[in-house]
Amino acid sequence: MKILISHISDEALIALLLKDFIESTFLGQFEVLLSSNSGDSGVGDKWLVELDGALTSADLVLVLCSPKSIRQPWIHFEFGCAWTKSLAISCLCHSGLNKIGLPSHLRTFEVLEVDDNNFMEQLFEDLAKRFGIRRLPRLSYDTMKAELRATLVSLSHTGKHDDEPISIDDLKREPGFAEQEVEASEAAKELEDKIDERIEERIREKEEPSKPEPSKPEPRKPKPEKPRSSPGKKVKVRGLRRKKKEAPKETESVQKRVLKLLAAAGDTGYPLEDLSDLLGIVEPKLEPYLDVLKEQAYINIAVEVGRPPEYKIGAKGEQYLDESKPT
């Protein structure tokens, strides 16, 4: 099963964090894709082809909605593509945005508020219900909430979620899209209007769901006879002793493990190869996390002649670790 998280580049840390939470909780059951992966790998037609491939294989799309992201055309473009493919869609509001502040075409779908104290429980219960998972593993919601709260606080400190209107010229675009920005903005607005019209039509034409036929009761199976024992003797039944299940270990996100490791290293730092070995994550999978952490100034890279570049924790990364400690 695959989940696609649609987000803007400034909110990549939140998307990575949710990816870690979901994949580590449902080991081997979910693969979480990020829309930024398609955008970063190429431009123009190639980006659209890769986005279409990600949407085609996805079973659910989670749209990260903030006061800034809902004013960017690419979020609405990705949402529109997902809606036309009839994919399940959930909007995750954060950084002060709630359901009332969403555009009308986004309010039609399920909305969860990240700022809600019960958000993590709601998210995992929703995933379990959607995909028929009967029982959730034992989770440390407090740990996840603290780490998620620290990520949101770090974004708010950068001032990226202010209430001032953001023009197309101020938005950070991928290389190669400069000539298409105005055209894309107009296309996104037109797509948004069409989506609103089609949603209203679907709501009007929606028929009442047909009642499911009553299922026939299954015949009762005869109970197995208990072994008879002679008076005064106890019958020993082998193989019925249950083994105690070990409680699952609490998991931390990749980004937090990286920061903890670099914090312990102090001024020495680690090159990519050593980080990969210590974390048990192959380099191609680890590099996107390091790139995002570096871009958001959580870590730094020290370069010396004759030595491989070394990753070191930054002041913002140390602050993140302090704020993410459960209270």
How many runs of DSSP E, i.e. beta strands?
Answer: 8
Overall domain count: 2
Q: What's the average pLDDT?
A: 76
With helices defined by DSSP (H or I, 4 residues minimum), what is the helix count? Answer: 12
Span between termini: 34 Å
Order of helices and strands: EHEHHEHEHEHHHHEHHEEH
Give the overall form.
globular
Rg calc: 25 Å
Tell me the major beta sheet.
5 strands, parallel
Give the uncertain stretches in residue-range form. 37-43, 160-184, 239-250
CATH class of the largest domain: Alpha Beta
- Reported CATH architecture of the largest domain: 3-Layer(aba) Sandwich
Strand content: 5-15%
Structure overview:
- The chain is an alpha/beta fold.
- It has two domains: 2-204, Rossmann fold, CATH 3.40.50.450; 254-323, Orthogonal Bundle (Arc Repressor Mutant, subunit A), CATH 1.10.10.
- Helices cover 45% and strands 11% of the residues.
- It is built from twelve helices and eight strands.
- The protein has a five-stranded parallel beta sheet with strand order 2-1-3-4-5, sandwiched between helices. It has a three-stranded antiparallel beta sheet with strand order 6-8-7.
- Strand 3, helix 4 (73-84) and strand 4 form a beta-alpha-beta unit.
- Helix 1 (12-25) packs antiparallel against helix 7, helix 4 crosses helix 8 and helix 7 (141-157) crosses helix 12 (315-323).
- The longest helix has 25 residues, at 181-205.
- It is globular and about 65 Å long.
- It starts with a strand and ends with a helix.
- Mean pLDDT is 76; it is low at 37-43, 160-184 and 239-250.
